[in-house]
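Hi all, posting the design record for the shared folder.

TITLE: backbone redesign
STEP: 1 of 1
STRUCTURE INPUT:
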């Protein structure tokens, strides 16, 4: 039986939509396998955005379903408060300690990406309290940055239209700095000069705040919601150096970029740096069940003795949920067995190259860029001014790609692609062709 539009309208998320593009009933997703999804009405589509850049291993993996079923029957739930633990949680924490760079070794599990970021900021705060530096509390972030939809993460959100309604609830005065955005800001200089300029501004911002009041800097290695902005390699290294110099913690939000998305297990690896805290979600279970983590370096954990009798960050009911952790272990096993990180690097390069060749020189394409399987085309006005193309026009690409058999994510001035990491060369080419044809059609309409 088909889902009725009347029933769908009881979903809060459907009460208001920012750019309605098809009747609700057309957009009921019913089943999925690999990189493909089917709507309830039977339309087959290539999932060019892996849901929300989540389903890294692809849809319909039985191994994860079985791990979930087995763990649910064995132990569906027990808290990790009052010293309790469970095997999947402990094994996953140990696995993450091995997979993540450097001495990121202590995982605080949570449910969503937003919560992981809240926890990371809390862990940073407790670290400073434990280190005898109680005035360090501010968190500096990036314009365009997105760290979740909760009130706490909105305090460090760099997308003003999202946070405006909550301004009165926020801790005032958390500074936002501009990230290096080569396409818009490189000018006649080099990427390296741009990185240095933005790094100087970050340093000045921390100094202006007073380093003795700054707890942490939080940033995404690729600014995802803000427009798939890809700072040059070297940026994170520059941030790391400033944080070290001024005794400020660095939090890398790898909620999207983690677990192979950029062609490395974690995007920080491109820069060869180790943040003090790393947050992960999405790809940790490929979305089969929600889970996230804030992962801390040894030195942070060492600030709290093993025999401490006082709680620091207060855990939630679902912290280290055994079923979610079992799903994550099965998910990571698939990633390793199927070499999905290497596949993301290879397929990402193929998608980027194909798209650059197909549309790179079009009048309405300013830039095609990518890092692993995060690839996008930034669209500009057809008049040669370089101005961003009107977002209502860009949004038309969602429908144009849909009609051709793919789901993409067109927002602001950017059409984004982040398919499952298991994508094959033939599927990559199909996705690239669909996007190129959609952009071609849009350009034709603007003549
Ligand atoms: C970089 C980044 N951080 C945090 C979040 C928030 O994650 P969640 O929606 O699971 O709270 C997102 C969501 O898209 C994200 O892209």
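Okay, here is what came back for every position:
SEQUENCE:
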């Amino acid at each position: 039986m088909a889902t009725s539009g009347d029933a769908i309208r009881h979903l809060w998320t459907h009460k208001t939509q920012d750019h309605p593009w098809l009747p609700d009933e057309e957009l009921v997703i019913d089943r999925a396998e690999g990189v493909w999804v089917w709507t309830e009405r039977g339309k087959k589509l290539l999932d060019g955005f892996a849901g929300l850049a989540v389903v890294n291993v692809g849809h319909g993996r039985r191994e994860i379903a079985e791990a979930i079923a087995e763990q649910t029957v064995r132990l569906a739930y027990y808290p990790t408060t009052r010293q309790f633990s469970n095997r999947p949680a402990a094994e996953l924490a140990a696995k993450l300690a091995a997979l993540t760079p450097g001495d990121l070794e202590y995982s605080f599990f949570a449910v969503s990406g937003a919560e992981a970021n809240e926890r990371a900021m809390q862990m940073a705060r407790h670290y400073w309290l434990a280190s005898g530096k109680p005035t360090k509390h501010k968190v500096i972030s990036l314009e365009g940055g997105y760290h979740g939809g909760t009130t706490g993460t909105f305090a460090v959100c760099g997308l003003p239209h999202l946070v405006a309604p909550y301004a009165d609830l926020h801790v005032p005065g958390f500074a936002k700095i501009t990230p290096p955005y080569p396409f818009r800001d490189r000018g006649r200089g080099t990427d390296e000069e741009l990185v240095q300029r933005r790094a100087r501004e970050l340093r000045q911002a921390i100094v202006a705040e007073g380093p003795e009041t700054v707890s942490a800097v939080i940033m995404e290695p690729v600014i995802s919601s803000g427009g798939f902005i890809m700072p040059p390699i070297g940026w994170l290294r520059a941030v790391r150096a400033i944080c070290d110099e001024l005794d400020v913690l660095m939090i890398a939000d790898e909620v999207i970029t983690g677990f192979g998305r950029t062609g490395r297990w974690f995007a920080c690896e491109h820069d060869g740096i180790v943040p003090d805290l790393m947050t992960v979600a999405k790809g940790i279970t490929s979305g089969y069940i929600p889970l996230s983590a804030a992962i801390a370096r040894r030195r942070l954990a060492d600030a709290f003795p093993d025999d401490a009798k006082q709680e620091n960050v207060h855990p939630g009911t679902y912290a280290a949920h055994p079923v979610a952790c079992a799903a994550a272990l099965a998910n990571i096993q698939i990633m390793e067995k199927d070499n999905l990180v290497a596949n993301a690097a290879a397929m990402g390069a193929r998608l980027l190259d194909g798209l650059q060749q197909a549309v790179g020189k079009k009048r309405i394409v300013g830039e095609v860029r990518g890092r692993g399987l995060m690839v996008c085309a930034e669209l500009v006005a057809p008049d040669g001014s370089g101005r961003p193309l009107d977002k209502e026009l860009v949004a038309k690409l969602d429908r144009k790609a849909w009609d051709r058999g793919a789901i993409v994510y067109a927002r602001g001035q950017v059409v984004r692609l982040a398919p499952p990491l298991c994508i094959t060369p033939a599927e990559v080419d199909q996705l690239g062709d669909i996007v190129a044809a959609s952009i071609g059609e849009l350009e034709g309409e603007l003549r």
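COMMENT: The radius of gyration is 22 Å.
Let me know if anyone wants the other runs.
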